[in-house]
What does this fold into?
Amino acid sequence: MNFGGAHSGQLLQRLQASLQTLPDKPEETPESALRALWCRAAGLQLSVQAAQLQEPPELDAAGLERLDALVARRLAGEPLAYLLERQRFMDLELLARPSALIPRRETEMLGEAARALLLEAAGDAPCCIDVCCGSGNLALAMSRALPSARVHGADLSAQALELARENAALLGLDARVQWHEGDLLAPFEGADWAGAVDLLISAPPYISSARLDSMPREIIGFEPAMAFDGGAFGVGILMRLLRQAPGLLRAGGWLCVEVGLGQGPAMLQLARRERRYDEVRAVLDAQGHERVLLARRAAEAPGG
It folds into this structure.
């Protein structure tokens, strides 16, 4: 075993000197990245968290060349999750590819809040819909949490849905989640869906188009723009969800959405003005910022 040898020491020094990490991916450090990339060079596909529990295998000369190439790609900005082809989300080990956004810690906050509401839902088989589902992380986390739930995932991107189906198969959940292609809530139009949904969750695009050019290369250069471009002001899709969700939610059902940094106060105000919600609250991050909005469908509301 030569993981602690001179070659790995040199690579670690390079990573320590030059690696740029994002605050919403706290699991990545120079040390954790090197161990995970070492495992990947050895042929293992593990998330960065899972790799920390793995004794790194021996690498031959060809393996060390692969490791050097992986480190170079990471230092050039390619996201660690795409290099590893894995990302941990809540308690799930998921496939990660450039066809879908890499799940972040803020989305775990959304997932944890939504899971708690799902487990409190009335009935034996509550209905849960995840729109803008991307890699399927939220839908799959809900299905894992409550096997009796009727879970649906929807996305505008056929490529993202393909990855979501692969993740469902990887986790053995492919028989428990149905996938739909379409724009936001369009796949759920019709009388069968009206007032039938217990939980509607979404981590939608919410970055304003004007900010895209200033975003880190790790994001704008590799992750799909349609997964984070929220239009001119960044809140257009969030506003559509606030307006349209009550038509699907049953009385007492919940809308759970992730919001961008700084968008929380305005979105909470809009939700509280909407008379079809009778309770609105937020989940705060460690810095006290509103990052998740929860709104409950009123039992009776004018304009139902």
